[in-house]
TrEMBL record:
Chain segments annotated as transmembrane: none
Name used for this protein in its record: 2,3-bisphosphoglycerate-dependent phosphoglycerate mutase
Family assignment from sequence similarity: Belongs to the phosphoglycerate mutase family. BPG-dependent PGAM subfamily.
Keyword vocabulary terms for this entry: Gluconeogenesis, Glycolysis, Isomerase
Pathway it works in: Carbohydrate degradation; glycolysis; pyruvate from D-glyceraldehyde 3-phosphate: step 3/5
NCBIfam families: pgm_1
Gene Ontology annotations of biological process type: gluconeogenesis; glycolytic process
SUPFAM superfamilies, sorted: Phosphoglycerate mutase-like (SSF53254)
Binding site for substrate: 8-15, 21-22, 58, 84-87, 95, 111-112, 155-156
Transition state stabilizer, annotated site positions: H154
GO molecular function: phosphoglycerate mutase activity
Function: Catalyzes the interconversion of 2-phosphoglycerate and 3-phosphoglycerate.
Catalytic activities: (2R)-2-phosphoglycerate = (2R)-3-phosphoglycerate
């Protein structure tokens, strides 16, 4: 049974500063580096055939540290389809300051609703429309060949994949949170069907 492991990158500088990050390329914090290494410890002893990550440094850095810690040397495929949701005009803004300016309810809608994007940005629906065709074509393409796959990406690109794998309804996905640096291990049929899930906390 092929295995798919999803990992959200470790804490980034703007996660720490409570800022909307999106496609802005910010590095990991010391905490994020530790989370990436801990993810590697949790995955030590597992084997994979290929790894996927986004075009953003924080995901690539997490994957590199994870591999180093776990003793892995995988071929790595980077693709923009796995990038974080683009937060448009909110990128770089402090989340608390933005809530004070626009109201908690409006910012909550921009952050957590499935279909409402922030100004000039992407909703989760938009992110899924970008991420899932690549997931179906490339990542599940490997799964169908019986390969074990590691994906290190972002909160929203990974949530889109979780939504697809676990058949989460649109009205429930806003409540799904993915912790930084915590591997989600999925056992899949070669047709991509979900057979089991384990969270390595």
């Amino acid at each position: 049974m092929p295995t798919l492991v999803l990992v959200r990158h470790g804490q980034s500088l703007w996660n720490l500063e409570n800022r909307f990050t999106g496609w802005v390329d910010v590095p990991l914090t010391e905490t994020g580096i530790a989370e990436a290494r801990l993810a590697g410890e949790r995955l030590r002893g597992r084997s994979f055939d290929v790894a996927y990550t986004s075009r953003l440094t924080r995901a690539q850095q997490t994957l590199s540290l994870l591999q180093e810690t776990a003793g892995l040397q995988l071929p790595v495929i980077q693709d923009e389809a796995l990038n974080e949701r683009h937060y448009g005009d909110l990128q770089g803004l402090n989340k608390a300051d933005t809530a004070a300016r626009y109201g908690d309810e409006q910012v909550h809608i921009w952050r957590r609703s499935f279909a409402t994007p922030p100004p000039n940005g992407e909703s989760l629906k938009d992110t899924a429309a970008r991420t899932l065709p690549f997931f179906e074509r490339a990542i599940l393409g490997d799964i169908r060949q019986g390969k074990d796959v590691l994906v290190v990406a972002h909160g929203n690109s990974n949530r889109a994949i979780v939504m697809r794998l676990e058949d989460v309804p649109e009205d429930e996905i806003p409540g799904v949170e993915l912790a930084t640096g915590v591997p989600l291990v999925y056992g899949l049929g070669e047709d991509g069907s979900l057979q089991g899930k384990t969270i390595l906390e």
